[in-house]
Request: fold
Amino acid sequence: MEVRIVVISLYVLMIFIVGFVGLRRTKSFNDFFLGGGKVGAWMSAFSYGTAYFSAVLFIGFAGNLGWQFGFSALWIAFFNALVGVFFVWSVLGWRIKRITSEMGVATMSEFLEKRYGSSLFKLLSAIVIFIFMIPYSAAVFMGLSYLFTVSFGIPYIYALIFMGSITTMYLVMGGYKSMAMIDMIFGMIMVVSVSILLFSTLDAGGGLSNIASNLASIDPDLAGTVGPPGFWALFSVICLTSIAPIAMPQLVQKFYAIKDKKAVRVGIIASTVFAVLICGVAYFIGSTTRVFFSPETTPALFQNGIPMADRLMPELLVNIIPETLTVIILLLILSASMSTLAALVLISSSSFSKDFYAGFINKKVSDKSLTKLMRFMSAFFVFLSVILAYMNIDTIVAILGISWGAIGSFFLGPFVWGLFTKWITRFAALVAGLTGLAVCLILYFCGLPSPQAGTIGMFTSLLLPPFFSVLENCKKCSK
Reply:
């Protein structure tokens, strides 16, 4: 226990030092939000990867989906790396940097405003980002707090307050450059940690073949190609977690800030390898939860025979890792989550400060005042996220699912078509974004699981723009 406290204290000290250095180097809004637009390949790659994969992955998704799907959950890891990372970096990365630089925009909302000539689009975008990033951040705080509660025996609320304070401290001080600097350190910690985690799990489970045999004895489908929930359930999770990143503002922002085309090329390889390792290990470990836990052997993790999904991975991580190495796993989850939280907070605070306040309330706001407002809104956003996490309204998968689903459903179609075409109309893009969001939310509140609701909403958003653009142009021609 003493070793863990010392290591976590040193970790917090490191964050404070990096935040202080970033504070001294941050002279403008562009420095605070985009690191001056000159962030290198490795910093960008690690920043993208650590923002993508957080406590939500390790605690919520890996445990919950690994329990449900068994080894077939590894398909999620495969497509996350192939589509959510490799495709985004290789096909969209440089195009995003080039086009946004030419337009002189710094946020997703500004891009949509300029691309479609609509201030309404900018306003709606800012609202969607701010509202639906809050539950995403809350899900990350929940995952972190569960782990700290299990590891240190401290009450859930105290863990939340501790994590919220650290996040606020280093982000408010330094901004994006500070975040990118520390993300490299976080990324290296994650690589070492998942390697230890993989070997410890294989050792505890008696090797891969023994784990596979145990899963098959519980249910043959758990060791098969598609787990018990079925193809559609697996497909929807793959789509939600692999396609949504194409238009997730906190991930797209990494390309606004990247230095040049060469940095993008290097980042493609670095970020993809990172994703394969981190995501692959996470879902593999999650798939072993049925081997180690059952209502008979660990009744405290079950209610009426049903596992408490968000508690599975914290217990697994604490129990299968040698006690001398548990601090490494704490650093793994902490590093992954701090990066994601910082990215979410930065994007959400910018949606209010840059897009809403500077865009509609005070268009002549000074750069200095705008940066101060960003810092204040960052702290406020963390506060709202912690409050929602304390309410503990649903599982991590459900909360993140509706957050990603809603954001992806609104932005995917307008953003992708806006990047690659000039003939998609403003009306078509607006209808697609609003319809996709409405479909996602209606299906969710009617009882459809959030990954499925989000997947249908995203495809709606992606397919509608060309249809309505053609329809609108045909009406013009008929006149």
Observations:
- The CA atoms of residues 262 and 448 lie 43 Å apart.
- The chain has a mean pLDDT of 83.
- The domain at 2-395 is CATH 1.20.1730.10 (Sodium/glucose cotransporter).
